[in-house]
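User: Good morning. I'm curious how magnesium ion would be positioned relative to this chain. Could you predict the structure with it bound?
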Amino acid sequence: MSGLYTYYLLLRPVAWICFLLPFAVGLGIGAGEKTELFKVFLATISFASWMSFSFVVNAIYDKEVDKYHDGRTKDVDLSKQPLVTGEISVKKAQIISFLSLLVSIFSAYLINQNFLIAMILANFIGLIYSAPPRLKSKPIADVVCNAAAASLIFYAGMSVSEYYASIELYLAAFILAATFYIPTAVSDFEFDKLVGLKTTPVFFGPEKTLKSLYIFAVFTVLLWIHVFISSEKLLIKILSPLITVYTIFYVSVVNRRWNGRFLRVSPNLILAPFALISIILYLYIFVIIFLKVGG
Ligand code: GPP
Ligand code: MG
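Assistant: Good morning! Here's the predicted structure, ligand included:
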């Protein structure tokens, strides 16, 4: 196995796409007069280092459970992650995670105070999600951690340009993130149950958890319709109908894939559209910056 691939399995950059989307949407919504190319660059470094920190900490604390993974429904086969195979030592992984944390916080410090606070909190959630109190193994807390992390990184994205939205937008982001996260937790159900992780679907049962998804979806759709009506931002006007339609599509696909015993949804159902929209948003941000410089 090549050295680079070992680090790919440790850092899992493809899985970062889940959080890149809310970050890029935040950057995009904030983009305007105050946006600076250098700050967008630094913020992206801070984002990537936060993800690196969170995933390396996750690999360290999941070392004993990941070895039982069957390789399905994930971005990588976790049983081949380098702490399980011994290719990277725990000590080395700890050093990588610590350096990632330092880079994430230091680059955030160079941007502004609100961005720094958001990144400190995001890194803190990344830590307690996997390390004791290990919220990933506590019902509801696992969903709250992921939804809170997505909302925080969304806020962080906007704060790069010192743009701040009304509370409903953060709430809409939180509920949306929970709606998208829950099915991924249900598809992990068999594995999590096997290794003794008390995630939301393990605690409530996968069927009940999937049923709750309808309620989450209704709230998501209502909140994004409200956001669409109340916001004057063109980008929000464009994104909210897309979000509403994709939420309905996603929830209906997920429910059709449930076979009464387990859920198999391809991670690409999230990763592909999230990656595409993130790329478009970065291009949009560059256009805004260059128009500003030119004009
Ligand atoms: C992997 O968790 C997910 C993360 C490390 C990201 C969480 C980051 C936050 C800031 C909340 P997992 O162990 O539950 O899933 P997997 O089985 O894919 O490793
Ligand atoms: Mg893990």
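The mean pLDDT is 96. Residues 268-294 form the longest helix (27 residues).
Let me know if you'd like a different ligand tried.
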